[in-house]
Design goal:
This protein has 357 residues and is of the alpha/beta class. The protein contains 12 helices and 11 strands. The structure holds nicotinamide-adenine-dinucleotide (NAD) and zinc ion.
């Protein structure tokens, strides 16, 4: 049984399907593909695992495939052009439909190609990492990195549908899976105390990747992301709440040159910093802050940086964070589990004290 939820964005509304073995279920794909041409973008790791299955599900279409290299370092304009070149060489026209089969990297590149090829064509997201299923495949942000900054080139482009097949998570490296759980926990903290309590009670089932627990966790996460995106599609206010733990996390990632932590791991540490800070300024009880930290730790995620956080570089890196508006650092903090708020009122001295521990 699959869950369906709908992202309500007017004429760009689309469904998200969550369930086991969906790659083999053509009814999740066929209604969302207009023409005969289908173009699958995937990478060298995922292709041998899942491409054949998808190919046989879509047997009625003229299907071409582009296999890109694996890794964030290939999320570039070069790879983008490689995909465009293939589309041109195979004569794909404006009624083609792109399918992104992979994690967030494949999804972001494919979405950006779809946003721009012949001024925009349809695309479907088939996320294969937990992070992509609960985060990057939903919301319509697409893009690639510039040598000087992540996600500096991109566009908003919504998919026709998202097919999140929980069965594919079985082959995901454990570390990648846990990193995705960090984003799941984030949704509970920022918006849903009941979901957070459910995560506490069902963590073992989630760590065992039991199907029912996974389907619920992914569906609820997508619902929360969809609600936030619907309220603020282009990130002026509310969408910023999704960045909970991320100002700190991004700084940690950047200071370690993206070599030490997976994104979700840095976010896990960042969320612990954010609840710690929320407690220090009296927004959150110590009990709630402790529950967040405990759940992150029980999920096998890091709760503190591997080496001491250097105060000055951290402040400087955060100051260059894109969440700074008019020179004032804006942070998402917690008013208690389930409630978060954006604030620009945190004094630099308070941050210094936080980083000193
Ligand atoms: N567009 C958005 O709103 C948004 C949101 C969050 C993150 N992102 C982007 O997402 C990217 C990170 O995504 P990610 O964490 O999925 O990383 P990823 O796409 O690099 O995937 C992680 C690794 O897992 C492998 N893999 C994927 N699925 C697999 C499977 N089922 N079995 C075995 N291996 C599998 C991949 O090949 C890769 O090596 C970043 O570029 C980030 O900027 C985008
Ligand atoms: Zn994130």
């Amino acid at each position: 049984m699959a869950e369906r939820l709908d992202v309500d964005l007017g004429d760009r509304a689309y469904p998200i399907f969550v369930g086991a073995s969906l790659l083999g279920d053509s009814t999740r794909f066929v209604p969302y593909i207009d023409g005969r041409q289908v173009f699958v973008v995937t990478n060298e790791t995922i292709a041998p695992l899942y491409l054949d299955q998808l190919r046989s599900t879509l047997g009625e279409f003229d299907l071409d495939v582009c296999i890109i290299s694996d890794g964030e370092r290939h999320k570039t304009l070069e790879t983008y052009l490689q995909v465009i070149d293939e589309l041109m060489a195979r004569r794909h026209n404006r009624t083609t439909t792109l399918l992104a089969l992979g994690g967030g990297v494949v999804g972001d590149i494919t979405g950006f190609v779809a946003a721009t090829y012949q001024r925009g064509v349809a695309f479907l997201q088939i996320p294969t990492t937990l992070l992509a299923q609960v985060d990057s495949s939903v919301g319509g942000k697409t893009g690639v990195n510039h040598p000087s900054g992540k996600n500096m080139i991109g566009a908003f482009h919504q998919p026709r549908c998202v097919v999140a097949d929980t069965s594919v998570l079985g082959s995901l490296p454990r570390r990648e899976y846990l990193a995705g759980l960090a984003e799941v926990i984030k949704y509970g903290v920022i918006r849903d105390a009941e979901f957070f309590a459910w995560l506490e009670a069902n963590l073992t089932a989630l760590l065992d990747q039991q199907e029912a627990a996974l389907v619920h966790a992914i569906t609820r996460s997508c619902q929360i992301k969809a609600e936030v995106v619907q309220a603020d599609e282009r990130e002026s206010g509310e969408r910023a709440l999704l960045n909970f733990g991320h100002s700190f996390g991004h700084a940690l990632e950047a200071l370690t040159r993206y070599e030490t932590y997976l994104h979700g791991e840095a976010v896990a540490i960042g969320m612990v910093m954010a609840v710690d800070l929320s407690a220090r300024i009296g927004w959150m009880s110590d009990t709630d802050a402790g529950r967040v930290r405990d759940l992150i730790e029980a999920a096998g995620l890091p709760v503190q940086a591997k080496t001491d956080v250097d105060v000055e570089p951290m402040l400087k890196t955060m100051g260059m964070d894109k969440k700074v508006v008019d020179g004032q650092l804006r942070l998402v903090l917690s008013r208690g589990i389930g409630h978060s708020e954006l604030t620009d009122k945190v004094a630099e001295s308070t941050l210094r004290a936080l980083f000193r521990g």
